[in-house]
Amino acid sequence: MKTLAVYLVCEPETPALAEAAVEGGADLIELGFPFSDPLAEGPTIRLASERALARGMRTAQCIDCLAEVRRRVDVPLVPMTYAAILEAYGYERFVADTRAAGATSAIVVDLPVEDSHDVPRIQLVAPTSTDERIAACAAATDGWLYLVTLTGTTGARGEVSPALAGLVERTRALTDVPLYAGFGISTPAHAATVAELADGVVVGSRAIQAAEQGTAALRDYVRSLREAIDAVVTPV
To answer: Which of 24, 58, 179, 181 has an alpha carbon within 20 to 30 A of 160's alpha carbon?
Structure first.
């Protein structure tokens, strides 16, 4: 089975949406803790983050959201945010409070692998990463390695990045940790293509667009991804 990870920004409706995503077949939920300057994010996630902040979703409220999601689902939950959030909240406090609320790990997009070894987190690598950088990130990562399929920001795109296959090949030669790929994956066809290469598929912007139509729309969208991914997995 290939892993399907779905990204949602923390808002009051997110616990119900996360539950719907899991019902649709999501194996892991990433929960975006909104930041005012999300450098890696495209317009969909940026607007969702701005909306969440306008509704009062600060770090404490996001941790409450995480705890409510944990009460509803039993899949891994991964907060995704930026170093400035941890700096303001306190690194050790962030780790302790998110873990107490039910987080499995964390993704801190702009926290270099060399820094803050006391913050267990999933590391990210990109097509521009050197082999030395990939090896360092793989050695430090917490559970799996996030392959950024392209250079640039998040957002739905017309096709899967042609750089992904080469990135997977280089990374597999350096580590045995599971490889999940994200950025620019939006359709069931994209998900199937990525599942043929990587161990997991991460979908963000298009999931948020579906979530804006409600729980049923998100559940149906995630189910379409799940079916496409499962169709390419060869039984052992």
So the answer is: 24
147: helix, strand or coil: strand
Tell me which amino acid residue 141 is. T
Q: How far apart are CA 79 and CA 112, in angstroms?
A: 17
Strands 145-148 and 28-32: unpaired
Q: How many domains does the chain have?
A: 1
- Give the per-residue pLDDT at 233: 60
Q: Average per-residue pLDDT in the chain?
A: 93
The residue segments making up the domain with residue 225 are 3-231
Reading the block at residue 70, the tokens are 């944990």
Confidence of residue 40 (pLDDT cuts 50, 70, 90): low
What angle (nearest 5°) sits at the alpha carbon of residue 68, between those of residues 66 and 74?
85
Residue 156 banded pLDDT, cuts 50, 70, 90: very low
109 assigned to some structural domain: yes
